[in-house]
Amino acid sequence: MNPANVSQLKFFHQVRLSYIDIHYNFNIQEKVRNKKWREETMKEAPNYKEALEELEAIVEEIENETADIDVLTEKVKRAAYLIKYCREKLRKTDDEIRKVLEDFEAEDKEE
Known about the structure:
- This protein is an all-alpha fold.
- About 85% of the residues lie in helices and about 0% in strands.
- The protein is built from 3 helices and no strands.
- The chain has helices spanning about 5-40, 50-65, 70-110.
């Protein structure tokens, strides 16, 4: 085998190993980031008002383009979570109010 070919093969092998190493480290870092994000994002908002205030702050940052590009994805994901949280909270509250009113009307008819 030609020494030039051997050098090329060694070079390509080193490049491939470097790529694998970078890719592996990136995947590990991504998993750590995702786990941390899930823990932070999925923490439930203490209450509806605070969730809404946090959501408004995120929207304001995005609209004013003051959100750091490095955390923009996390902020959008957190905003999506807060929207779901607020919708569910509103849905539950609506269901509870309807039940109370139905019970009230049923008691009123019995009298």
